[in-house]
Amino acid sequence: MSPLQKRSLYALLIEIIWAAAIIAVFISQGGAAKWDTNADFRLIMDGMWVGGLILYWWLFSSINQRPNQFDERDKTIIEKSAKVQWMAVVLSLVAWVIGLSEHFHTQGQIPVIYLSLIFFSTLIASTLAQSVGILFGYWRMNRNG
Amino acid sequence: MAKIQNRIRKLRFDRYEMTQQELAEKAGCTRQTVIAIEQGKYVPSLELSFRIARAFQVPLEDVFQYE
């Protein structure tokens, strides 16, 4: 396993835990109904996604600083993983647009909380998809060349 | 179908059984990339190809062949 492949695997596990924790906190704190009234809840959620992003950035950026840990093959795989990431983001947004439009079409407006939820979910989908894309890229290269 | 072949494995063993890690360090890539190139699963860039040839101190065409 190349260093980047290992990092991606660790990142994927961390991202799954991170996403599960965000969802668990969101539900346990009262969900969308408590979002506007509970400032602590918003602060915890903001802290969780910012913390997760910093960890994610550290996992992938620290690898570039060591010699012989990252090369052109890894770079090619990362570039290709961007396609998976882009697809995940688009699919996530499409799901939100359809879901929200159907659910709120009679009211003519959407609660502000959904802006944050769209952002969190797109961020989670994007980071998960990058790790999956990298792991898939290695698998495909080892299989097909 | 045309394919790029390489003689890296043979050249390594001709050079006092140079390890994949040693070659990776000399060529400036990861050991996994050396393995992938040896197995024909990855075609390196021209720059990396030259660095590999330089690590063996042979011309490029002694390492890679287009067939």
Short characterization:
The complex is a heterodimer of chains A (145) and B (67). By secondary structure, chain A is mainly alpha-helical.
Give keywords.
heterodimer; A: 145 residues; mainly alpha; 81% helix; elongated; B: 67 residues; 5 helices
Provide structural commentary.
The complex is a heterodimer of chains A (145) and B (67). With 145 residues, chain A is an all-alpha fold. Chain A is built from five helices and no strands. In chain A, helix 1 (3-28) packs antiparallel against helix 5 and helix 4 packs antiparallel against helix 5 (113-144). The mean pLDDT of chain A is 87. Chain B is built from five helices and two strands. Chain B has a two-stranded antiparallel sheet with strand order 1-2. The termini of chain B are close together.
Outline the biggest β-sheet of chain A: none
Q: How would you sum up the major sheet of chain B? A: 2 strands, antiparallel
Order of helices and strands of chain B: EHHHHHE
- Uncertain spans of chain A: none
Q: Give the helix tally of chain A.
A: 5
Amino- and carboxy-terminal Cα gap of chain A = 16 Å
Q: How big is the Rg of chain B? A: 11 Å
Q: What shape does the CA trace of chain A take?
A: elongated
Strand content of chain A: under 5%
Record the strand order, biggest sheet of chain B. Answer: 1-2
- Helix/strand structural class of chain B: mainly alpha
Mean pLDDT of chain B: 91
Portion in beta strands of chain B = 5-15%
Net shape of chain B: globular
The average pLDDT score of chain A comes to 87
How is the quaternary structure best described? Answer: heterodimer
Biggest chain-to-chain interface with counts: A-B, 16 and 16 residues
Query: What percent of residues of chain A adopt helix (DSSP H or I)?
Result: over 70%
**Strand pairing plus helix content of chain A: what structural class?**
mainly alpha
**Helix residue percentage of chain B:** 55-70%
Number of helices of chain B: 5
